[in-house]
Write a structure and sequence with these properties.
The protein is globular. It starts with 7 loop residues before the first strand and ends with a strand. Helix content is about 25%, strand content about 30%. The longest helix is centred in the middle third of the chain and has 16 residues. It is an alpha+beta fold. The mean pLDDT is about 95. Bound molecules: pyridoxal-5'-phosphate. Pyridoxal-5'-phosphate binds next to α5 and β16.
Length: about 350
Amino acid sequence: MTAADEIKIKKIKESKLSQISLENIPFGKYFTDHMFEMDYHNGEWQQPIIRPYEPIMMDPSTAALHYGQAIFEGIKAYKNKDGEAFIFRPHDNIKRFNASAVRMQMPTVPEDIFMEGLRTLINLEQNWIPNQEDHSLYIRPFMYSSDEMIGVRPSEDYKFLIILSPTGPYYNTPMRIYVEEQYVRAVPGGVGYAKAAGNYGAAMYATAQAKLKGYDQVLWTDAFEHKYIQECGTMNVFFIIGDKAITPDLGAGTILAGITRDSVMVTLAQLGLTVEERELSIDEIISAHQSGLLKEVFGTGTAATISLIKELKYKDYIMSFDVNSWKIAPEVKNRLNQIRYGQIEDPYGWMVKV
Ligand SMILES: *Cc1c(COP(=O)(O)O)cnc(C)c1O
């Protein structure tokens, strides 16, 4: 298989789009008419196909269901005011996908085929990209091991798919966050930096416990001392302390290298803040709060974009914020949205035309 080979296209008879309103459509619930599919077999990728979106038949012994070789990505496509479709930083997602694949002992997907698959599929589904504010087309590429055999070893066969879901605003209300001190998401040497399915299953119990206490998400801390901040649910976190924006560094491989995180760092620097990627302890956050220097706290991710955090709880210490007075997070969100929706020039080459 080379990128020059045609992607086979099998179209649906009638689009589902006429039965769906895209306005305020909930995240991840509706999928477009077609999907991209490519199988890995005999040590190579086979002919890719775009075909109607439908359930996949699976043998009960399918390896991914038992041993969890499964990875994914989250990307968004937007329409500008002229109705042209653009994808936000897809090459970065493709690189991260392949880094996840390597860590999970899975085959990588050649970047040109991946990109061509994205382009061809989105092109076909153009009408599914909403053009309201804070709306977009969420792109979910994923891969799983598809050997039909029970045995703990890397699979020989894999399935790579891309599905698309039109989406409205994700978390629109400011969040209450519980600083986690008992459960752990990632350790050095582990898979925290990979977008591997098991990371999310492993986080659900702790998150549910925090929800019982009235919180929306946990803020993960390091496994050894529960002292250093990692990230939050499916978001990286930023703390505005004085005139600095601080976010945990990626050093130990315990944090997902968010593409929104990177875009936000660039934007914060553009706004004149000093951006620091470094170890950040909960003690430093608390003392900044006590001295009045902790100005804003927010999460960043493709699904959520920028999510304001209105409360942080650590042990018995609660930090509450009046998010309505914040200037920086809303301005960052605004600038990123202006680039995404083509309202201002994109100086970074982030928007890739479909
Ligand atoms: C996907 C994800 C993020 C955000 O990454 P983006 O590239 O900005 O979408 C952050 N943390 C985790 C654990 C994630 O899975």
